[in-house]
């Protein structure tokens, strides 16, 4: 099922559920609806707490960034967690892709370029509070904001 179709079905289901709940609470009367709202609020709050805890533990914020086994005629650059501007610029002309090395196991977490083959530089940048410059002049089109 396509992503757009899935989203439409989820929104339609949420809308039908909300209308159904409103009709149910209206039919129950004010006092009973208040009691039901308290019980439902408890479960919604618990579900929100579980989602917040699991999202914080396994969140996407500083996840794995990998170029393991990459083959590039030019440079390989991994940049993340930068709280400033990044000036990439143009590197030297791409060189030939080196021969494949022996297989290297992937890193467990963080940034990794194990077994990468590059005709240029391999640069890994993480957790910089300032700016990062890769030999560029900073001309228009070479400036990216934040981590790509």
What can you tell me about this protein's structure?
With about 150 residues, the protein is of the alpha/beta class. The chain has two domains: about 5-55, no CATH class; about 65-95 and about 115-145, no CATH class. It has helices spanning about 5-30, 30-55; strands at about 65, 70, 75-80, 85, 110, 115-120, 120-130, 130-135, 145. The protein has a three-stranded mixed β-sheet, with no helix packed on it. It has a two-stranded parallel sheet with strand order 1-5. It has a two-stranded parallel ribbon with strand order 2-6. The radius of gyration is 25 Å and the shape is elongated. The model is unreliable at about 135-148 (pLDDT under 50).
């Amino acid at each position: 099922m396509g992503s757009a179709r899935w989203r439409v079905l989820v929104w339609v289901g949420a809308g039908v559920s909300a209308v159904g709940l409103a009709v149910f609470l209206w039919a129950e009367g004010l006092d009973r609806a208040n009691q039901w709202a308290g019980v439902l609020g408890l479960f919604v709050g618990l579900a929100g707490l579980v989602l917040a805890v699991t999202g914080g533990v396994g969140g996407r914020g500083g996840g794995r960034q990998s170029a393991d086994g990459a083959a590039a005629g030019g440079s390989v650059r991994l940049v993340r967690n930068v709280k400033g501007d990044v000036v990439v610029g143009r590197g030297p002309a791409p060189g030939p892709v080196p021969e494949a090395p022996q297989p290297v196991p992937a890193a467990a977490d963080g940034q990794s370029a194990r077994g990468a083959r590059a005709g240029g530089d391999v640069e890994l940048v993480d957790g910089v509070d300032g700016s990062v410059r890769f030999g560029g002049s900073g001309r228009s089109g070479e400036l990216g904001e934040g981590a790509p």
